[in-house]
Design goal:
CATH topology of chain B: Arc Repressor Mutant, subunit A
Helix content of chain A: 40-55%
Number of domains of chain B: 1
Number of strands of chain A: 25
CATH architecture of chain B: Orthogonal Bundle
Mean pLDDT of chain A: 85
Strand content of chain A: 15-25%
Distance between the termini of chain A: 72 Å
Largest sheet of chain A: 13 strands, mixed
Oligomer: heterodimer
Largest interface: A-B, 23 and 15 residues
Shape of chain A: globular
Low-confidence stretches of chain A: 1-6
Number of domains of chain A: 5
Number of helices of chain B: 4
Structural class of chain A: alpha+beta
Structural class of chain B: mainly alpha
CATH class of chain B: Mainly Alpha
CATH superfamily of chain B: Winged helix-like DNA-binding domain superfamily/Winged helix DNA-binding domain
Strand order of the largest sheet of chain B: 1-2
Mean pLDDT of chain B: 85
């Protein structure tokens, strides 16, 4: 025997640790001792190095038998856990229901929002060149950060010719409403486009028949999407078939492409060569001063630095239109949907909705934590016994997690079912067409499983540690007083839940209120009596006849025609000049071309002067009328009578001033604008009619319309509907948030209901004794409600400043907005208290009215 | 009656041979000496545990070692059921090989 050394050689720590982790508890230490003994023996005979080597080798070879056994026993235990879990579900049906329902709803909301978010994030991503596509955008020299997406028509071909750096370039313009005539059928198509052939080099639209790029080179060609081709030609071969547009121009179908993916910002059902736009709308296509909503897209050659090139083309408009204040820039197309040109995209909604999704899930998880820890007393004996017969902390935690896995799995399946159920509703609210296809969308599936896993971790961890820390001795010694868990933590969690709910309630109220405000806001003009018709076919040429015909009816007050609708004066004219114009003022303003009766029809009042008196003329612009805002911009006094000059036309005079009306959305200030008679621009026939006999009036209008435009289908619109469309995004948001608020409150109430159920069970004897001693039902209800109501009150205090902060920020988006009144907070508080009270009243009243004999008879 | 497997037979025999000195290291060494098979402790203890549950062997705690935290070795001993299992195994073996010699297999 060698003498005892000061320090025994120790086997490799890590290898030993692995063996200890893998071995079952019973033989763990024997195995370690045996290995150490052999290790020492090998050390003494062959040295430390070979002993280490041997140890590692042995560990590796042991892995398989160890793991096999470990898995075997885990499964045996899992079976037991699940059996106990299902017995518990069954025993505490209401608690299990609350847990599962809460988690299912929470997860379903999460998934729905996730689908929405995924769709937003996937915008434009189908394009193969997505990282290389740029929009050509403009900005004014003095506001370089405010970008606009519309460029003059000749710009894009000019750039393409001049710069070799550009690989592909195309213009695009949405076509607006057009009349399609095919085999005697007259149909309006609203969703078309004008584009250059290279559009198909830039965007990845899938081809079905023929090459759309070559087809588009022929000016008399139309390209249809698949559903459009089916609509007109059914199963026939559409190639070469002709359609008549606007009753005048004949186009032959040159190619068919797949429908444009829904997540494309550029949308069209048909496409016509760009140059036709001039013919359709009487616009000179070589005019550098006209901004008619044309957008330009380019892809640069591989070796070109976009930033450098962007600066190179900055002056391209000035090169052709020397007086222009517009400069050019390239803007990456990729993030247009999310961030917009001026940070006005949907990204903020993505953030808000993601936050809501997380909060919803959190609320559901809190329910689980609360109910499980509250229920802990009931499970204490089982856990104590497990520990006594040798269960470790780990195995108790494993048990908690396995029970939760069972719950989450059931909830997950339910959640997917709920998603299928509510997806159509979300689609209706958001105007998307989302689908849930788990097999086709691997990322989504993984993400959903991720949601389930996160749920598992959030809701399981605290209960697992809490339950596994029970001391078996304590539990076994005093079986009469099972611990009911950490009630202060539970209180905090309930407060958190209700805080979230109240913030959502307040937000919903504020958003709804603002929406109502917008709907009812006096816009300065008479939106309720106005009907408008697109100025199609012969309407424009024979306007005077139409007007006289219509005015014969006593129900028609006024008839007029105008370039745009009063709520959306977006046309902009630069290069204006007027008498007394300061040198530092940009001569640019919004304008609207109107007929002389426009002001009476729409209800705009004159502050000075009166309406146009001269005969309208496209060349001679003699008379101008400005709004109050324009006076500030023009910086002149007594404008009436001063001269005013538009573009290269001869100067005219300002003949009147009208009051400000909201000529853009309420997000923005009223714009300075001028009115001019300019028949060339007229687009709409606007009719002011009495509210009586609307039906008769409409059929009269239809009759007149039919005489003038026999081939056109008759369509009319109410102005207030058009105004509503301005706030579509907000309305969708409002709808979605309202729904999720209700669900959040519902889940919170589920949790509250569970807790009240638990409290009632716990205090059943106390209540029995109180009742026998003479307490009234109301006293007992009050006693039991008090605790919960305090929690809700505290939540209110936290939620108020939080929601004030958030909503104040949101309202900043609107130039015209409501005040967040105190009553909103009061209303939210009252709502929350009432809902909470109602929820717990089921339980409190039940236990307060129960016969004390039942609860006390076993004592 | 259920037969024991070859591996179990080897472990049981090794324990029997070792008598009072059968613990992890010695059993492993004995098996290697008898059969040339190098069992890992994973496999060995798996078999031991399995046979402990069947009642063929029992564990005996040895004296604690005279050092800090020194646990005693765990010794293994055959139970009467274990011995009977071995006897059954040998009987089965004999029955199976009755009238057969090594050479007759070649014919």
């Amino acid at each position: 025997m060698s003498p005892i050394r000061k320090k025994d050689p120790v086997p490799p720590r890590f290898a030993e640790w692995i063996i200890l982790r893998l071995a079952w508890a019973e033989d763990r230490f024997s195995i370690r001792e045996n290995l150490r003994e052999e290790y020492m023996y090998i050390t003494s005979t062959r040295g430390v190095r070979s002993a280490d080597l041997w140890y590692w080798g042995h560990m590796m070879r042991s892995l398989f038998p160890f793991v096999r056994l470990a898995i075997y026993w885990r499964i045996v235990m899992l079976k037991n856990y699940l059996k106990i879990a299902f017995r518990n579900f069954y025993k505490h049906k209401s608690f299990s229901f609350i847990n599962i329902a809460g988690l299912a709803i929470g997860m379903a909301c999460c998934m729905l929002i996730l689908l929405w978010v995924q769709d937003e994030l996937n915008y434009e991503r189908f394009n193969e060149n997505i990282d290389d596509i740029f929009c050509v955008v403009i900005y004014l020299t003095d506001t370089p950060n405010v970008l606009g997406g519309t460029v003059p028509a000749p710009l894009v071909p000019y750039l393409k010719d001049k710069y070799a750096e550009i690989k592909h370039a195309s213009r695009f313009r949405g076509s607006g409403r057009r009349l399609f005539v095919y085999e005697g059928n007259n149909v309006f198509e609203d969703n078309g486009g004008f584009a250059d052939p290279e559009l198909f080099d830039i965007f990845s639209f899938a081809t079905i028949l023929n090459d759309p790029k070559t087809a588009l080179m022929d000016l008399n060609t139309i390209i249809l999407t698949k559903s459009m081709a089916e609509k007109y030609f059914g199963s026939e071969d559409p190639l070469g078939k002709t359609i008549k547009l606007e009753n005048r121009y004949v186009f032959a179908v040159g190619a068919v492409i797949e429908d444009i993916p829904q997540n494309s910002s550029i949308q069209f059902d048909y496409l016509i060569p760009f140059e036709n736009f001039g013919k359709f709308d009487n616009v000179e296509m070589d005019n550098w001063g006209r901004y008619e909503n044309y957008s330009g897209f380019v892809i640069l050659n591989d070796n070109v630095d976009p930033e450098v090139f962007s600066e190179k083309i900055a002056g391209a408009i000035v090169e052709n239109d020397p007086n222009s204040n517009f400069r050019l820039k390239l803007h990456l197309y990729k993030n247009l949907r999310l961030f917009g040109l001026n940070n006005d995209g949907t990204f903020k909604f993505v953030l808000i909705f993601s936050a809501i999704a997380i909060l919803m899930l959190l609320i559901a998880c809190i329910n689980f934590v609360n109910l499980t820890t509250a229920q802990a007393g009931k499970r204490a004996k089982e856990i104590g016994l497990r520990k006594v017969i040798g269960a470790s902390k780990f195995s108790i935690r494993r048990q908690v997690y396995s029970e939760l896995v069972a719950i989450v799995t059931i909830a997950f399946v339910l959640a997917i079912f709920l998603v299928y159920l509510f997806l159509p509703r979300l689609n209706a609210l958001s105007g998307k067409s989302l689908t849930l296809s788990l097999t086709g969308n691997l990322g989504l599936l993984l993400f959903m499983l991720g949601i389930a896993f996160v749920t598992l971790i959030i809701s399981g961890t605290y209960p697992a540690f809490y339950l596994s820390a029970f001391s078996p001795v304590k539990i076994m010694k005093s079986p009469a007083s099972p611990s009911s868990g950490n009630s202060s933590l539970r209180k905090m969690l309930v407060i958190a839940q209700f805080t979230i709910s109240i913030v959502l309630i307040i937000s919903t109220i504020v958003i709804t209120k603002q929406m109502i405000y917008i709907k009812n806001k006096e816009l300065g003009f008479d939106k309720d009596h106005l009907v408008y018709i697109d100025l199609l076919g012969n309407l424009k040429a024979r306007f005077d006849t139409v007007k006289n015909e219509l005015l014969r009816n006593p129900n028609v007050n006024y008839v007029t025609t105008a370039q745009s609708l009063p709520n959306n004066v977006s046309n902009f004219a630069s290069g204006l000049d007027w008498e007394g114009k300061p040198a530092d003022v940009e001569g640019g303003m919004n304008f609207i071309a109107v007929e002389k009766d426009y002001f009476d029809t729409v209800g705009i009042e004159f502050l000075e002067g009166e309406t146009f008196k001269t005969v309208p003329d496209n060349q001679l612009l003699r008379e101008f009328i400005i709004n109050e805002k324009a006076i500030d911009l023009m910086q002149i006094e007594n404008p009436v009578g001063k001269s005013f000059k538009m573009w290269d036309r001869e100067a005219g005079r300002i003949i009147g001033i009208v009051n400000n009306v909201h000529n853009t959305s309420l997000h923005q200030e009223i714009r300075p604008a001028f009115y001019v008679q300019f028949p060339y621009f007229y687009n709409y026939l606007i009719i002011n009619m009495k509210n009586e006999n609307i039906h008769d009036t409409m059929s009269l209008i239809q009759g007149v319309f039919g005489e003038i435009n026999p081939n056109y289908p008759f369509e009319f619109h109410f102005l207030d509907e058009n105004i509503d469309r301005f706030y579509q995004t907000e309305r969708q948001m409002n709808g979605i948030i309202t729904y999720f608020t209700m669900l959040a409150i519902f889940i919170s109430c589920l949790g509250l209901f569970g807790l009240s159920l638990f409290m009632a069970e716990q205090r059943i004897k106390e209540i029995g004794i109180r009742k026998t001693l003479g307490a009234t039902v109301s006293q007992i209800v009050g006693l039991m409600s008090k605790d919960f109501l305090i929690l809700v009150a505290v939540s209110n205090l936290i939620a108020w400043p939080a929601s004030y902060f958030i909503m104040n920020k949101w309202l900043q988006n609107f130039t015209y907005r409501i005040d967040i009144g105190l009553w909103i907070f009061a209303l939210a508080a009252a709502l929350a208290l009432m809902i909470a009270l109602l929820t717990i009243s089921f339980q409190t009243i039940k236990s307060a009215t129960a016969n004390p004999v039942d609860s006390l008879r076993y004592e | 009656m259920k037969e024991i497997s070859k591996a179990e037979e080897m472990v049981l025999l090794a324990i029997w041979r070792l008598g009072n000195d059968a613990y992890g290291v010695s059993v492993r060494r004995q098996i290697r000496k008898d059969t040339g098979k190098d069992y890992t402790y994973g496999t060995l203890y798996g078999l031991l545990r399995q046979m402990g549950r069947k009642g063929y062997i029992q564990k005996i705690k040895g004296e604690p070692l005279p050092k800090k935290g020194g646990r005693g070795k765990t010794y293994f001993k055959l139970t009467p059921e274990g011995i009977r299992a071995l006897k059954d195994a040998i009987a089965l073996h004999k029955r199976m090989w009755k009238d057969i010699s090594e050479f007759s297999l070649d014919g």
